[in-house]
Amino acid sequence: MESSRREIRAGILTYLACTFALSSIFYTLIIRAGHLAAGHGLYVLGLMWCPGTAAIVTCLIRRRPLASLGWKWKWRYQAAAYLIPILYAGAAYGVVWATGLGGFPNPAVLDSFSKIGHTHVSTTRALIVFVLATGTLGMISSTVSALGEEIGWRGFLVPELAKTTSFTKTALISGAIWTAWHVPILVFADARQRFAPDAIRRLVTHFRDPQVGAVSGQLILDCEDAEPLPSDTPSSSGCCREPQAGRRTIRLGADNGGRQASSVVVIHDPRADHRRLR
To answer: What does the pLDDT look like over 217-226, one tens digit per residue?
Structure first.
């Protein structure tokens, strides 16, 4: 029994090592480009297939049959997989539309039709075409890329974890690994934001100074029973006094219209009886 558990853990570690080793290639390509659409989307496609490729490689290394990855087709499960997302997405959109948080139809969708020459297509017909295209051709194209992740995470990792731990721990561990795998492109690419080309260099510049005590964005320090800092102290340039006696609030960070990305403050006051950082 113990040897079987060691074998399972060895397989999981092999899989994770292969996944992150392969993914590092595409992390580098995407981060260097700075855009998920770089390489005509092939970088992201390659990244999404790293978990699946790692699962196949792990099976070959550990001499396991590829059939163990769950290559099965049952129509009821496929139908459920297709319809369930429509149901919960429909419920979410229904709330948004009913409360006025969003409109229907989406003007951007209608504009996309006009850009390809269908200026005389009615709104109803355009929406029907869009829904049908998304539910068929869009489904196929999305499956091609998502299949790589499903083979790896759900075809290999989850079943292997379930052999050695509970359902709850399996969900938490696999979810944590899945999250960590996405972090590099969420932080260093434009999955949700765009960075200036020199953003990282500017953010880490202050860490090169050995005399820097702390680096932060907008920071508020409340110091009670402390003497005000001298007016010529660089870190007090953003200081503003509150009406309460013996209390001062120092605001550091974005200034001049928010153009400053970070600030440095070095504060040492042995006379302060209490400091609170919030």
So the answer is: 555 555 555 4
In a domain, 194, yes or no: no
| Predicted model pTM | 0.61
Element (H, E) at 236: none
Q: Is residue 193 part of a domain?
A: no
With beta carbons less than 8 A apart as the criterion, state whether 59 and 65 touch: yes
Q: Are 216 and 263 in contact (CB under 8 A)?
A: yes
Q: Structure tokens of 105?
A: 């139809």
Antiparallel, parallel or unpaired: β 274-277 and 219-224: antiparallel
What are the DSSP E strand ranges found in the chain?
215-216, 219-224, 239-241, 247-252, 263-264, 274-277
- Of 149, 167, 188, the one marking the end of a domain is 188
> Given CA atoms 111, 117, 119, 121 in this order, what sign does their dihedral have?
negative
Boundaries of domain holding 210: 201-277
With CA atoms as reference, report the closest residue to 194 among 46, 37, 29, 27.
37
